[in-house]
Amino acid sequence: MCTAATYTTKDHYFGRNLDLEFSYHETVTVTPRRKVLPMRHTDALKEHYAMIGMAFVVEDYPLYYDATNEKGLSMAGLNFPGNAHYNAPADGRRNLASFELIPWILGQCATVEQARILLAEVNLTDTAFSPQLPPSPLHWLIADQNESIVFEQTENGTRIFDNPVGVMTNNPTFDYHMLHLQDYMNASARLPENRLAPGVGMEPYSRGMGGFGIPGDLSSASRFVKVAFTKMNSLSGDSEEESVSQFFKILGSVEQQKGCCRLGTDEDGNLLCEYTIYSSCCNMDRGIYYYTTYENSGISCVDMNREDLDGDRLAVYELQKEPRICRQN
Ligand SMILES: C[C@H](CCC(=O)NCCS(=O)(=O)O)[C@H]1CC[C@H]2[C@@H]3[C@H](O)C[C@@H]4C[C@H](O)CC[C@]4(C)[C@H]3C[C@H](O)[C@]12C
Description:
Layout: E1 2-8, E2 12-20, E3 26-31, E4 51-58, E5 61-69, E6 74-79, E7 94-97, H1 101-108, H2 112-119, E8 122-125, E9 138-143, E10 148-154, E11 157-162, E12 167-168, H3 174-181, H4 220-233, H5 240-252, E13 262-265, E14 271-273, E15 275-283, E16 288-293, E17 300-303, E18 315-318
Parallel strand pairs: 7-8
Antiparallel strand pairs: 1-2, 1-12, 2-15, 3-4, 3-18, 4-5, 5-6, 6-9, 9-10, 10-11, 13-14, 15-16, 16-17
The chain binds taurocholic acid.
């Protein structure tokens, strides 16, 4: 499972939890403007917006999981198994392999409005990056500083949804999540009032009872509700430190601890558990990508503007996974 979110204080933030039972060799990767991005079915992007994000770099190609470009436009791919449907290349459409969608959109669009226009012509193909890396079934949260949308391609074709809550999880489709959210619209961050039995002396016996009913399990539909509640009620100072810290708290409300989502065993009998491999928070206005890993909850960051953004080579930063504990005596 995965969860992605946006958050606004003085600046704008975009990030995600990446939940999986194993890790590829992902790295924080900056793609500068002149790094040629070949496309399987359409023209290569030779000059494009620079971008920063988490990617598995294979054969010098950035396979982005999530990224933000120099204008602030941001995207995250989230698992959508059983629903994502990729086609053969089709005449008259913009045929893109699913792994090309993030660099293709972020390379060319400054805003969601511009992305909507390009997305309208897209046909995601079932093209594999390589035999070892077949297409992943995904849907995408796309956001700029002003709005969020979700892009899905199912058997019924492509759909672009307005996303007024600015959060996203996994299955099922986005319209289900928004309908399901309505079940919880009575939940509140305030203390509840007794509307059940007027005149009967009932007082809340615990703080937090206004949110009674908000689910706490790790299913995709439940995480959508939980992270929407947390994000929409979130308050923080607007300094960079307070904003980034609050963003990680929002993602923390739906993080996955090892052992709580068990998937069976591998062929050697080892227990497989899904857990939050990393959490990210990118300042969309300043191109600074902050992250934590499961092992190291201290925040690390890479600033895209410290790289040569006019260059033609990827800048790749290994994740800082060593736990850091501040000893005080
Ligand atoms: C699995 C990741 C999404 C996290 C998630 O939603 N997990 C939930 C799993 S489940 O629903 O509970 O089964 C997705 C997000 C981005 C994906 C990666 C990116 O799309 C980049 C490449 C694309 C290649 O085609 C496959 C490998 C890959 C490196 C992908 C592997 C994997 O599918 C990733 C890492």
